[in-house]
Amino acid sequence: MSLSFELIGTDGLARRGRLTTAHGTVETPAFMPIGTAGTVKAMMPQSVRETGAEIILGNTFHLMLQPGAERVAALGGLHKFMDWPAPILTDSGGFQVMSLKELRKLDRDGVTFRSPRDGSEHRLTPERSMEIQHLLDADITMSFDECTTWPVDEAAAAQSMRLSMAWAERGKRAFMSRPGYGLFGIVQGSTFPALRAESARMLADIGFDGYAVGGLAVGEGQELMFRTLDTTVPLLPADRPRYLMGVGRPADIVGAVRRGIDMFDCVLPTRGGRTAQAFTRRGELNMRNARHRDDPRPIDERCTCPACRNHSRAYLHHLIRSEEILGAMLLTWHNLHYYQEIMRGLRTAIECNSLCHWIAAFETEQGQGDLPEI
């Protein structure tokens, strides 16, 4: 295997690990901010680093469209292009197979897309996805798959999963292995345990540097997602990192870590930052609400991010109401800082064998709601 993954400790099913790539080390459990088009929206690269993030996610499909993978490669690769010298994982474009359903034609060989930008036609196959991710210089390349829609019947989920498994095998053959770089397979099968088991077995037989669970957080709800993880995660190789794609809210992440997941990504903290949503240890706040307009307190009195350290709720409310860019920047920084605090807390708790106590305290605080009005 090209990536090094060291399991440092466990607490129940939860794992504390260390993933070493060509561009640095990632302590797990880890949350990856979304840098879809070569930028974490509303953040400077240094600001992302200051939140504690050690790895970010880029997207094959969007970077293929603009500015183009060949152009990024000619300019030194995605790390240099966006000034992110640390590890990068790239989503293969498989999610867009589902989300751009009206703009694509799917066949056994791959997918033909119409660009949502200008209507131009583009073709993605497992081999082309591997080529693009290689040109981007991704430390972690994701298998090209079809993210199964929700809701879906078992027959359709089986057909979708088996197509993804065929693509995974083709992608593995096309992947250019080298030290510090790795390829992750993606388990599909919707919420059907037998299909998830079949997918996990097939991927393990092919052999990957890591294993992702895809096709969740697409509308099935937390309870069903957790039930699917309960039956799927134990089937994944224990010596490889496990990645739950597109998840999620803080409670989703905590529950998935408890079930043995190591890596996460989600748009919520950055999208929330641009839409007046603040994630805090006491739950979520809408900073657009009038209740904040005269409030001199920070979003969270225990948070050390710039938004909480230097600014009041009243000021942030003013920025949001005035549609000032700084509001989105400060709230995004706060949200990413909070997510990284959760990951640090989980890592420490697993190391100390105190995860149950940490989760109990987390759930108690989340249940208390916002601080009382002043």
Entry summary:
It is built from 15 helices and 16 strands. By secondary structure, it is an alpha/beta fold.
Task: Itemize the secondary structure elements and their pairings.
Elements: E1 4-11, E2 14-21, E3 24-28, E4 30-32, H1 45-50, E5 56-59, H2 60-65, H3 69-74, H4 78-82, E6 88-91, H5 94-99, E7 104-106, E8 111-114, E9 121-124, H6 126-136, E10 140-142, H7 154-174, E11 182-187, H8 193-206, E12 210-213, H9 222-232, E13 242-244, H10 250-258, E14 263-265, H11 268-274, E15 277-280, E16 283-286, H12 306-310, H13 313-321, H14 325-351, H15 355-368
Parallel strand pairs: 4-14, 5-6, 6-10, 10-11, 11-12, 12-13, 13-14
Antiparallel strand pairs: 1-2, 2-3, 7-8, 8-9, 15-16
Describe this structure in words.
With 374 residues, this protein is an alpha/beta fold. It folds into 2 domains: 4-266, Alpha-Beta Barrel (TIM Barrel); 275-368, no CATH class. It is 42% helix and 19% strand. It contains 15 helices and 16 strands. The strands form 4 sheets. Strands 4-14-13-12-11-10-6-5 form an 8-stranded parallel sheet. It has a 3-stranded antiparallel sheet with strand order 1-2-3. Strands 7-8-9 form a 3-stranded antiparallel sheet. Strand 12, helix 9 (222-232) and strand 13 (242-244) form a beta-alpha-beta unit. The longest helix has 27 residues, at 325-351. It is globular, with a radius of gyration of 20 Å. The model has no long low-confidence stretch (mean pLDDT 96).
